[in-house]
């Protein structure tokens, strides 16, 4: 049974920080000559920003990566409070908008991405105001068509970077990009990745033409790290793999990659009851009982980030004193609850003695929605398959009201200031 003293909220997401360390080590073996940037954006893919960042540093991560500037500032403040030296916890952040004041970013010693002339001007203005040199990574659009300077625009940006460098306003620390089809090993997908590499190399040559040769070139996230060695360069950016999930389970599962899913989502059964044959479950009657059934109620729903598209079939495991029950979600996912099918009930409604048979599970028994399949649990991949999405979404959109309970990481200590 779950310990209700841990939280007033019935559900919880257990995050094994030792799994974070294990996964970084496994991924380091795939790119042994590279620095590692642990990507902890989006609240560490829903796992908890500061605890995961600290675990990654303990496990030897060289950098931390956060997409949104506000979250990067939050991370820096948390690390400062924890006494972690900025020199041993460099943070790279890459999404800014023209109306944002970048002086807090420079004061926090964040590395910033530059893609366009306006973003360079924005960085330089803050550097002048503070009288310090900003650290930037130039982003090259290698085919994603998101941020990044195209090869047509890069010469002008490179000239501006050179002038800002000569003025002492910036240091061009890195050059980087992102792969759009690194998880696609088809002939077409491989050709796409090869084209990304070619464009990246041409972009590096444009920078070199003005005397800029960034020390840190980075192109590979988890998929590139795993399946495209030519994309490794100086640094790799493990994201989904950091959390023990495969970027493409159809190519290789987390177990096959030697990764351990870090998150286990669990909640108690809040009710168990017998429902008669051909009875609808949840809104719209999209599922009806195929005979007399035991149904259980679990107090999580789409307000917690449980996808409504996981209705009618997403797997769960019910843990009882007598053993485990493999069950599934039946009916539509509600805002705060889901219904799970616990199996057939003996007897019939016409037999009074059969109306209250011994239940297969009881209120308070633990239900695991997903966790590590190596432990016999449903996987985030299973939920993603059923919901028609990717495992990234299953973990990263988990609602804030579900407490994250972090299982401590045991290893060498973080460098202290």
Distance between the termini: 42 Å
Largest sheet entry: 9 strands, mixed
Order of helices and strands: EHEHHEHEHEHEHEHEHEEEEEEEEEEHHE
Q: What strand line-up does the widest sheet have? A: 11-14-17-16-15-18-10-1-19
Number of helices: 11
Specify the helix fraction band. Answer: 25-40%
| Average pLDDT for all residues | 95
Supply the helix-strand structural class.
alpha/beta
User: Based on CA inertia axes, which overall geometry fits?
Assistant: elongated
* Low-confidence runs of at least 5 consecutive residues: 1-5, 412-417
Strand percentage lies at: 15-25%
Q: Compute the number of strand runs.
A: 19
The radius of gyration is 25 Å
Report what the structure shows.
Helix 1 packs across helix 3. The strands form three sheets. The chain has a nine-stranded mixed sheet. Strands 2-3-4-5-6-7-8-9 form an eight-stranded parallel barrel, surrounded by five helices. It has a two-stranded antiparallel sheet with strand order 12-13. It has 417 residues and is an alpha/beta fold.
Structure at a glance:
By secondary structure, the chain is an alpha/beta fold. The protein is built from eleven helices and 19 strands. 48% of the residues are buried.
Write the layout of secondary structure elements.
Elements lengths: L11 E5 H12 L6 E5 L1 H5 L3 H10 L4 E6 H13 L9 E5 L7 H5 L2 E5 L2 H14 L3 E6 L14 H13 L3 E7 L10 H23 L6 E5 L1 H6 L7 E2 L26 E6 L2 E5 L4 E2 L5 E2 L4 E6 L16 E6 L2 E8 L7 E7 L21 E5 L9 H8 L3 H6 L7 E4 L10
Parallel strand pairs: 1-19, 2-3, 2-9, 3-4, 4-5, 5-6, 6-7, 7-8, 8-9
Antiparallel strand pairs: 1-10, 10-18, 11-14, 12-13, 14-17, 15-16, 15-18, 16-17
Helix pairs in contact: 1-3
